[in-house]
Known about the structure:
By secondary structure, the chain is mainly alpha-helical. The protein is built from five helices and three strands; from the N terminus they run αβααββαα.
Amino acid sequence: MSDLFSPRRPDGRAEWRVIYDFAAGLPYGTDVKFARIAELLDTDDRARAHRAVRRCNRQFTQDSLPRVLGNVRGVGYRILQPADYAPAAMNIQRQARRKVTSAVDLMRTAPLADMTPGQRDWAHRVTMVLVDNELRLRSQEDWQKEAERRLAQLEQRAGLTPKVIEHD
């Protein structure tokens, strides 16, 4: 029996590293079926596979390697196309805003009457920070929408079509 810190793989690589090494050279748009991931990791445990892909994606972004694996229902994953990065980032931003809203809602239901004065003070401070964060996120989103609307109007008036700038 192996202990908690023993590698699961004979080659000693972490599971995320196996996915990383496999996906690093794949071209944009390549589908990576769950069966292939299960084969690479030698497991059918989807939770382990998802954790490995999540950790692999985090490493891709830390390394600034544009090979992020996006989830595709019924397929598994797909190496994001260059045009897919902005929508994926906006989805993450929306998820973050929903989580902040959920945190504020949780603090609104906190049983203040059952708390000690110190706990109430701490709960109040946490609530104020969360509400401030939520308001800033919403304000930034509103500003972004307005800026995009104004930019589109200017481009239309100038007869320009938006161009995608590709980086080497």
